[in-house]
Amino acid sequence: MQVYSFSPCKVLIRNNLRRNEARIQGNSALEAIKNRAFLGVFGRVSALVAPCGRKRKRRTFVSLCLATGAVFGGLADAQSGGSDSAYSGSASCQACHPEQGASQALSGHANSLARPWQHRLAETFASGSVKRVSDRGRVRLRIDGKSAAIETSAGTAADSEPADWAFGAGEQAVTFVSRVDRDWYLEHRWSYYAATGALELTPGHQATDPDESGSSTGIRYRIFSPRAEILNCFGCHSTGPLRLGNGYSIVPSEPGVRCEACHGGGATHIRAVAKGNLERALALIRHPGRLPPGDLNAYCGACHRPPQSNPEEIDWGDPWNVRHQPVYLSRSLCFQSERGLSCLSCHDPHTPLVRAGTEHYNARCMECHAGPVSAPAAVCPPSEAAACSSCHMPRVRPQAELEFTNHWIGVYQAGNRLQPRR
Ligand code: HEC
Ligand code: HEC
Ligand code: HEC
Ligand code: HEC
Ligand code: HEC
Ligand code: HEC
Ligand code: HEC
Question: 137-191, pLDDT tens digit by residue?
């Protein structure tokens, strides 16, 4: 299994850009490079990977990037087809693939990034009910036509900070992000949680209620910080290249994880279909269904975190790590066997996640465990009533309002939901 790594290449390219920035400010070519350099996780279509994957002139990039392992695209292309091509947008795909288009639009993927007033929870957001009240002050989400803000007040002091973007489909949580100025972005301290319908602390933020000045904003990130935190947020939660607009505002090509986030840019595929060259059309679009399970794990792991080359480095006692499904699934005997368990065994990439679907998931288990690798009926009732996953894939709560499914399928001791006893 190869190691996938994105950041070191990006850091290098970014530093280089920074250095040259003053010199070529306003140069549209620079903008073009930047746009492609921050393409996010799917390097295959970006200028970013070219110097890393293939040996081109930028020697420093080459050596450092190669040291971190392969970049995502190379491997996927080798087995699943596809080629570098421009992005067309999901509307164009939907014209010929209406079935995938209609159901994918309802998924958490498609809705994982939106303007707050266009979010699928916009009505709830606009109702004024999304707030948090404590002894020390009040926080409230407010939507006004095509703008949104988080308002805080303590005593007579008050503050209002715009909320430009809503990250998260709201299956579990929505975090608000906004541009402060041409250097900084803000991740708001208060997130919406579906479990409570209220604003609570964003993961990773310090617990402070609005202070005397009424201010309670969040964590600021430099747009071009070495770890590119904020660009990466947009990278994983949107499709196609990121552009930098007015005042360096980050402009995703298409918000949410849509068709071409997984299939690669489809312009040449569409052109080939239009010319009636079907064979060529198929070769020009990536079909991840053709990847073997291990590679598919890494493929979905490009955003969901890929399995580590060295499991020793993972803190299995940290409940936050459970959200990295590919990492955990890769530890299961079910996955390690030769029978080909993958993310696609249980999840259809074009439909919303099946929740509380005992029948759906049990049927998946029984595909293997009813036969040669059977469940011991005495302890594991193979009935439709009990969810196999309730015991073998326990739920973990890293924070009161969030719940993740432990994808390390195994036999768990009562009281330890993080790591199976075997
Ligand atoms: C003009 C019509 C048309 C458009 C637009 C179009 N496709 Fe296709 N696509 C086809 C046809 C025809 C096939 C082959 C038959 C089939 O599998 O449905 C195909 C096949 C595919 C396949 C299967 C490839 C394989 O190897 O089996 C994928 C994946 C795909 N398209 C994705 C996309 C994506 C993503 C977009 C948007 C960027 C898109 N298509 C836009 C017509 C189109
Ligand atoms: C481009 C990044 C990206 C890729 C690639 C990706 N995902 Fe996701 N996935 C996300 C994001 C972001 C979310 C969060 C959705 C939300 O906001 O709730 C998500 C959520 C999900 C969910 C929960 C969906 C729901 O409706 O609650 C499932 C299941 C899932 N992904 C499976 C997969 C599988 C399987 C693959 C590989 C075929 C994959 N993902 C590839 C980014 C990605
Ligand atoms: C490496 C890809 C990646 C990056 C970078 C990323 N996300 Fe996500 N995000 C995901 C995936 C995948 C999920 C799906 C939930 C899960 O399984 O953890 C998700 C889920 C979410 C959710 C839904 C609630 C939850 O925790 O499941 C929110 C909100 C969110 N991300 C906000 C952000 C923000 C804000 C940033 C930047 C600070 C960010 N994300 C950066 C991949 C990413
Ligand atoms: C999260 C990643 C992901 C997203 C987003 C996604 N697909 Fe797919 N797509 C896949 C995978 C994985 C397969 C292979 C499925 C399989 O073999 O079981 C696939 C297969 C296909 C196929 C081949 C026929 C089939 O169903 O096996 C078509 C056509 C297709 N996708 C079109 C689309 C269109 C159109 C969109 C956007 C509306 C889209 N996909 C969004 C991952 C994705
Ligand atoms: C053996 C079946 C199985 C496989 C394989 C599987 N999942 Fe899941 N997954 C589940 C179940 C069960 C749930 C919980 C559904 C619910 O909420 O009721 C789930 C939930 C999720 C969620 C929602 C967040 C959470 O943790 O509850 C994401 C995201 C997800 N899976 C991603 C993936 C990815 C990525 C892969 C491949 C690495 C994968 N899954 C493989 C069964 C599976
Ligand atoms: C693709 C086939 C496949 C699927 C699907 C599958 N498993 Fe397995 N599972 C296996 C194999 C093979 C083993 C190893 C058996 C052995 O070597 O004795 C295994 C082992 C196990 C074990 C014993 C783990 C240990 O560490 O001893 C449990 C528990 C288990 N599976 C539960 C499940 C559950 C629950 C599901 C559904 C959520 C599931 N499996 C889905 C193939 C599968
Ligand atoms: C009420 C909790 C519970 C449920 C529900 C459950 N199991 Fe189990 N399962 C266990 C326990 C406990 C063990 C360990 C038994 C032992 O000590 O060897 C086990 C063991 C297993 C094993 C490992 C057998 C071996 O080789 O030792 C498999 C495979 C398995 N279960 C599959 C399933 C499947 C498939 C389902 C759903 C049809 C299921 N289980 C439902 C509790 C459960």
Answer: 899 999 999 999 999 998 888 889 999 999 999 999 999 999 999 999 999 999 9
HSE (side-chain half, CA atoms, 13 Å) at 133: 3
Q: Which pLDDT belongs to residue 242?
A: 93
- Confidence grade of residue 33 (pLDDT, cut at 50, 70, 90): very low
- The helix or strand, by DSSP H or E, that contains position 186, with its residue range, turns out to be strand 184-188
Amino acid found at 389? S
pTM over 0.85: yes
Taking only the tens place, the pLDDT of each residue in 289-328 is: 999 988 998 899 999 998 877 778 889 999 999 999 999 9
**What is the C-alpha to C-alpha distance for residues 193 and 131, in angstroms, rounded to an integer?**
11
Burial (CB count <10 Å: 0-12, 13-18, 19+), residue 359:
exposed
Looking at the DSSP bridge assignments, the partners of residue 113 are: 167
> What is the mean pLDDT of the segment spanning 5-21?
34
Query: What residues contact 348, with CB distance under 8 A and at least 6 apart?
Result: none
Kindly give the distance from the C-alpha atom of residue 168 to the centroid of ligand 3, in angstroms, as a whole number. Answer: 7
Dihedral sign (CA 254, 108, 163, 223): negative
Burial class (CB in 10 A: 0-12, 13-18, 19+), 28: exposed
Any ligand 1 atom below 6 A from CB of 92:
yes
Instruction: Give the ligand with the smallest distance to the CA of 324.
Output: 3
361 lines ligand 5 (CB under 6 A): yes
Ligand 1 centroid–CA 43 distance in Å is 21
Torsion over CA: 56, 62, 65, 67 (sign)? positive
The answer to whether the CB of 326 is under 6 A from ligand 5 is: yes
Cα-to-centroid distance, 27 and ligand 5 (Å): 45
Atom from ligand 2 closest to the CA of residue 169: 17
* Residue 108 alpha carbon, nearest atom of ligand 3: 14
Distance of CA 202 to the CA centre of its chain: 17
Distance CA 6, CA 256 (A): 20
Distance from Cα 382 to the centre of ligand 7, integer Å: 9
The gap from C-alpha 342 to its chain's centroid, in whole angstroms, comes to 18
